[in-house]
Design brief:
Order of helices and strands: HHHHHHHEHEEEHEHHEHHE
Radius of gyration: 23 Å
Largest sheet: 7 strands, mixed
Strand content: 5-15%
CATH class of the largest domain: Alpha Beta
CATH superfamily of the largest domain: Vaccinia Virus protein VP39
CATH architecture of the largest domain: 3-Layer(aba) Sandwich
Strand order of the largest sheet: 3-2-1-4-5-7-6
Mean pLDDT: 89
Number of strands: 7
Helix content: 40-55%
Number of domains: 2
Amino acid sequence: MARTSHGLGDVDALLERFLGERSQRTARAYAMDLQSFADFAGLEVPAALARLLGGGPDAAGRLLMDYAIDLLGRSLSRATVDRRLSTLRAFSREAATAGLVDWALSVPTWDEITAAMRERSVTDSEHYLLPRHPDEIDRLDVQHYAFKAVLRANHAAPVPREAALVLDVGAGSGQWAFDACDDFPDATVVGLDLMASKPAQPPRYRFVRANVLNGLPFGGGTFDYVHQRLMVSGIPLAAWPAVVADLARVTRPGGWVELVEGPWAFDREGPATRELLNLVTEMLAARGLDTTTVVFDSLDGYLRDAGVQDVTRRQIWLPIGEWGGQVGSLMATDLRAGLTRMAELLRAQSRLTAEDARRLIQEALEECERNRTTGPSAIAYGRKAL
């Protein structure tokens, strides 16, 4: 049976001894490897190692597999991946010798890692309507700047600039989190997603590869501010209460949680827009995703049910089309790209021809311009109870 009663001080002392007993060159290499693991976990090195040791052998094995897949996802060499995993195994042996654990860390084989990567490439995006595509980065950036222009800020919750740890769940391109590095000049900002963020990342940004549906890989009370936006196309309707409860779990007492979502409907939409949305909602239903306005209507309720207090709900409208100025132009670009991607999925299912897709998308954009269509979004935020 695993011993889990050791504290952070035990691990800190063991870490000092572990590095101190090595040659200067080896200690530097080990320290770099351990820092890499800590960056993946979104924690300081001692806390990351305490997490590795504290959950028992099965949890440690799963965490190590997640880390190995993350390393491969960064296109690191096999030798580098092997070395970093071996360093963690060496540290776990030191922990066993010191009596902190009574089990051995099992490092996955190369075949096990690559097999897990293949499996996750299928299952991780099982529910998400628009799996990552080269053009998706640009679309997400356009969408981000439209929201930022309407809000006149990167976020709505009154989070103090002194926040030290910020989490963005469903980071997408990473741009919201990159801008959050400017909003919170002393913070480490962690972006969590199935796929890596854009490569040009600020120094205080850390990416963690994980699936929110499998639970957030962080300890309770870790972050000063947790942000999640536009995940209605990736989180099944039945999973929303549990996901929001997990967002609250990793938020520190007194910290802030913010959610932003829109419905699958537009104000003053035309017939072509509605025809496309009807086809899309059929795909949503097949994935167990929200097809109406349930999530949009329930954001503040999800927060309250998760124990979040002082919940505020706001609603904004984003214009779609040149009539809406810069924001309208951005949202028209976002809509065109999003509908094009969805049409590709419909064509793959033989439910829409290429000619009909082009026609409907063009007509939908013309309708938005003619009808001065807007897209509503709800913003809900609150503080975790002290």
